Amino acid sequence: GQPDTICHAVVGETVVLPCMTTPPGELIFSESRLYWQINEKIVHFFHKGRESLKDQDKRFRGRTSLFLDQMKYGNLSLKISNVQLLDNAEYFCIYKQDEDHQTKKSKIKLSVLAPPRTEETPFPSGQSQTSSRSPAETPRLTVLPLSLHLLVTLGLWHL
């Protein structure tokens, strides 16, 4: 089905994937589990009142965290720092309470964009790009003078 929420982030940013449950009072985490996952990969796991990250997917190590002080009020959101292009995926927030076997599941789509390119970046030739030329014309304009220069240089070489 469709994701419940769509989040956007740029590479290098920190993003919060929202996941809320409406608790009847405070949640009791000693008797529950919270999984954040992509398909079968564990992104973050919280079990019996604490984080359990030994089975966490390697590329998320050290980059995920929960809002531990807000969890008992139903905030199960996941914070991912230093977002990477590979983080672009559909995430599942799965909350299971052991005593009543109730499972709450939501799907959050994270759309990751490459960082915007800065205009100050010099081109290999040392020239900055001017906006008056279209990208399709640029190679022809730069190759032609270079070719003439080479022909002149080669012509002079043979004299």
UniProtKB/TrEMBL annotation:
Cellular component terms (Gene Ontology): external side of plasma membrane
Compartmental location: Membrane
Regions annotated as coiled coil: none
Q: Where are the annotated segments for Disordered?
A: 116-138
Start-end of Polar residues biased regions? 124-135
Domain called Ig-like: residue spans: 12-111
List the keywords (alphabetical): Disulfide bond, Glycoprotein, Immunoglobulin domain, Membrane, Signal
UniProt xrefs under InterPro entries: Ig-like_dom, Ig-like_dom_sf, Ig-like_fold, Ig_sub, Ig_V-set, IgSF_BTN/MOG
User: One Pfam family, short name please?
Assistant: V-set
Q: Which GO terms describe its biological process?
A: regulation of cytokine production; regulation of leukocyte cell-cell adhesion; regulation of T cell activation; T cell receptor signaling pathway
One of the entry's Gene Ontology molecular-function terms is: signaling receptor binding
Query: Superkingdom of the source?
Result: Eukaryota
Assign the protein's first listed, main location to one coarse class: membrane
What Gene3D superfamilies has UniProt attached to this entry? Answer: Immunoglobulins
- Protein name per its UniProtKB record: VTCN1 inhibitor
Q: Which gene encodes it?
A: Vtcn1_0
